Amino acid sequence: MKRSGPPPLAGATTDLPVMHEFRPGGTSTWGAGDWAATATDRRIGLALVLLLVGWLMIDTAYAQLQADPNQTVFQTLVKWTPLMLFGPPGQLGGFLLNIIVSFVAMALGTFMGLWLGLGQISPNTFVRRSSFLVTQLFRNSPWLVLLFYFMLLLPFRITILGETYDIPGWWKATFALSLPIMANVSEIVRGAIASIPTGQWESAESLAFSRGQTLWQIILPQCIKRMIPPWMNWYCILTMSTPLISILGVSDGMTLTQDALAAEGRSEFLIPMYLWLMSWFFIYSYPIAAWTRALERKYAVNQ
User: Is the pTM of this model over 0.85?
Assistant: First the structure.
């Protein structure tokens, strides 16, 4: 009888780490070394925060020496922080918009990347090769070029049933950022499926499971634990890349920081204000990065 397993999986290789079996809510397999590594991550995070605060204090003091003594740098930071954090009153913007863009782009990229990754292991040659080409195209394209391309390609407004609706710039920027995420999630899905031993497919076939049942009920549930660390890593990279949308005129944290500096008209405030914005990204992203490393250690297997 002809085997119904996916052709690309036979002899396929992956660069994803092999990991322990996932036990949701079960006993942990962490050892003393894992806890020590986690503690080290926390110490490193605390040291980096202290370094960032010290750097901010030094630059603030230096800027204050050159500034108007009637308005301190701290007063300026406090004055502009609500705008940099939440955007203008009644509008969506600031650092909050960066976080929203990262969430929406990651959700879109994950959804599209899942199906594109499944397409890469399809028995259908056309689907498999098309999925591979799309993956490689967006995986190897500069993010900034994609942003400019889709900002100019997509319309600024659409008309539906006689009503005209404006399309916000951050919607188009979010879609553009979701495309490289889609391509990389596709590779994560393909690699995770390829890392499952082919014996799983053969065992399911011997029990009369169809290909779809084997994929959705046996293979993919085992892949989730393998996909989480690289998926979280790409979310951190995406979040750090969201300031790119400021080049397109979107009112994110970067754009509003530039606006605040222009309103103040004091170049000596440039470094403290950008350090202040950078500290928000660091405080938001470092715990995610540390959690990603902890999950990688938890699921890793000594070869």
Answer: no
